[in-house]
């Protein structure tokens, strides 16, 4: 018999609430109007929020033997630790003309890429997002933090490799230029020897020197091509870099229509609650 009594009591409460709302109808209506007014006023607060996201590749540094070099610089979790540090956030805030406190809790890091068996060999993209109320400052802070991440991860190690490759490549290029000059001299000398019909033995000496120079030139050109490929690989694959700089976009805005509807709904509910409570007190009085 408990369930029927409970249902009966619930029906009585619902009926009483309905009578209260009907009797004191002006309270819900007043709540609806006041809520709508408050909602519209809230929309004028200028609460537009911006976010700026930079895409970063951590790179895949390799040893001189070609093996992958695992380190904290290739760990996406390291990026979270870097960008959440007070020192680096202060640097980004100063660069973006912001207060350091404006970045606390407004910097997030995500991973773009698939996780699985191949994740160890395929580094995902890192999305670094900064949110705030001023679009220009938010974008500047995000880009500065992205540059800091690049500098603190694999870029420093790979930059040393790049400098070595560039120095060696410049040396090889100078040697190729020198040998090219020598070859031109040998060819001119051989042509002159043949023109003057010098001793064949002397001509053979010139031909031998020319052949040696051409062989060395071919070896240097092969070395030059290898160095160029290694340099491109180091810059494009091994080193961390900003794939896409951050640009500020509107993340959320308090529009008038949305604020009006939400405010009116809240006011209507509060007005109905006040009507039910007020009717109960009046009835007891």
Structural class assignment = alpha+beta
Radius of gyration computed on alpha carbons = 38 Å
Number of strands: 5
In which range does the helix fraction lie? 55-70%
How would a textbook summarize the main sheet? 5 strands, antiparallel
Approximate strand percentage: 5-15%
Distance between the termini: 33 Å
Shape type:
rod-shaped
Report low-confidence residues grouped into runs of 5 or more. Answer: 115-121
The helix tally amounts to: 8
Mean pLDDT: 80
**H and E order:** HHEHHEEHHHEEH
Task: Characterise the protein shown here.
The chain is an alpha+beta fold and 285 residues long. 65% of the residues lie in helices and 11% in strands. The chain has helices spanning 2-23, 26-43, 76-83, 86-95, 135-152, 155-195, 200-238, 256-284; strands at 49-57, 107-112, 125-132, 241-244, 248-252. Helix 1 crosses helix 8 (256-284) and helix 2 (26-43) packs antiparallel against helix 8. The chain is rod-shaped and about 130 Å long. Mean pLDDT is 80; it is low at 115-121.
List the helices and strands and how they pair.
Elements: H1 2-23, H2 26-43, E1 49-57, H3 76-83, H4 86-95, E2 107-112, E3 125-132, H5 135-152, H6 155-195, H7 200-238, E4 241-244, E5 248-252, H8 256-284
Antiparallel strand pairs: 1-3, 1-4, 1-5, 2-3
Helix pairs in contact: 1-8, 2-8, 4-5, 6-7
Provide a concise account of the structure shown.
The protein is α+β, with helices and mostly antiparallel strands. The protein has helices at about 1-25, 25-45, 75-85, 85-95, 135-150, 155-195, 200-240, 255-285, and strands at about 50-55, 105-110, 125-130, 240-245, 250.
